[in-house]
Amino acid sequence: MKERKLSDLDLLPDETVKKLEEKGIVTVEDFIYADPKYLSEVTGMSERDVEDIQEELRNIDVEFETLEKLERKRRRITTGSSALDEILGGGVPCGELTEFAGPFGSGKSQIVFQLCVNVQLPEEEGGLESKAIFIDTEGTVSPGRIKGMAEALGLDPGEALRNVFVTQVRSVEEQMRAAEEAHKLCEREDIGLVVIDSLTAHFRAEYSKLGDVSERQARLMKHVDQLRNLAMDHDVAVVFTNQVHVDIEAATKGKGRRYEPVGGTIVAHQATHRIMLRRAKGEVRIARIIDSPYLPQREAAFRITEEGIRDVEFPER
Ligand code: GTP
Ligand code: MG
């Protein structure tokens, strides 16, 4: 639930809110859980009045709404492939985290480039008519490619580039600061999508020794928390890519070469929806949902074409 500030409510006079803020009582929760006697001293109100207000605030604290309303509220961005949208439940969701993992060349970056363009489309075409933030950790973001994808959809290419805010980060530290800055940008601009390509590259490089693993995981967890808050506070889709490594356990058990996303269980549990990509023939790629609270484990095929992400066209029978 979003943090509510006392100053956002009409319940208390501005002057009283100011007095409370000076004592560090800023949110509704701060007020509800504070000692009434103390609040009475700070505000000059009677304890009785303070308790009444606390009671009132507790009552508006929890609101129920129907699942149907929740479903309708969930905004989504099309990937460009209706088959891929379908297994995602209608596109990439706002308010949640989505992870695309896969080996090099599997299409992770192409998908996030396409989303940066598609988020700009009008709603009836699968977009949100809003802008994107792109946190590039690998130096691979391509204005030329994004322009081409925009042109293919009839968007003005110059305008399309102006609607994507890019930052290139060179370390874990910078990446975490970028996520903080993204919060501020979401307040100023109409953002619908935040991309991190890739989530784990810097973490992997900076904490490569075996002894660093627990520290790496702790920071990665903190970073993923930042991203989750970003998604929830601003109702934006947060999409990140992830590299994979060979699952040693499966290999040693004779189950053959299997890939596993980097970051282990921390990323797995935090990522709302985890999609694994793999190459098929030519420009075809296969996406498979491997972890999600509500999406079934299904596969979809899509293509990476000159125009961008598209459906596979099956020959008519
Ligand atoms: P890494 O970042 O290296 O781990 O890979 P990735 O999963 O991000 O790969 P990416 O999304 O960059 O996909 C690369 C593939 O997309 C290439 O092998 C090409 O098949 C395809 N591709 C990239 N750019 C173009 C383009 O401009 N036109 C066409 N037709 N295909 C492209
Ligand atoms: Mg890439």
TrEMBL record:
Q: Which GO terms describe its biological process?
A: DNA recombination; DNA repair
> Where is the RecA family profile domain positioned along the sequence?
73-244, 261-311
The answer, when asked if Nucleotide-binding is one of the entry's keywords, is yes
Q: Name the PROSITE patterns for this protein.
A: RECA_2, RECA_3
Q: Which GO terms describe its molecular function?
A: ATP binding; ATP-dependent DNA damage sensor activity; DNA binding
Query: Is DNA damage given among the entry's keywords?
Result: yes
Q: Which InterPro entries match?
A: AAA+_ATPase (IPR003593), DNA_recomb/repair_RecA-like (IPR016467), DNA_repair_Rad51/TF_NusA_a-hlx (IPR010995), P-loop_NTPase (IPR027417), Rad51_C (IPR013632), RecA_ATP-bd (IPR020588), RecA_monomer-monomer_interface (IPR020587)
**Top-level taxon in the UniProt lineage:** Archaea
UniProt keyword terms in alphabetical order: ATP-binding, DNA damage, DNA recombination, DNA-binding, Nucleotide-binding
Functional note: Involved in DNA repair and in homologous recombination. Binds and assemble on single-stranded DNA to form a nucleoprotein filament. Hydrolyzes ATP in a ssDNA-dependent manner and promotes DNA strand exchange between homologous DNA molecules.
Family as reported in the entry's similarity comment: Belongs to the eukaryotic RecA-like protein family.
Could you tell me what this protein is called? DNA repair and recombination protein RadA
Recorded source organism is Methanopyrus kandleri
Gene for this chain? radA
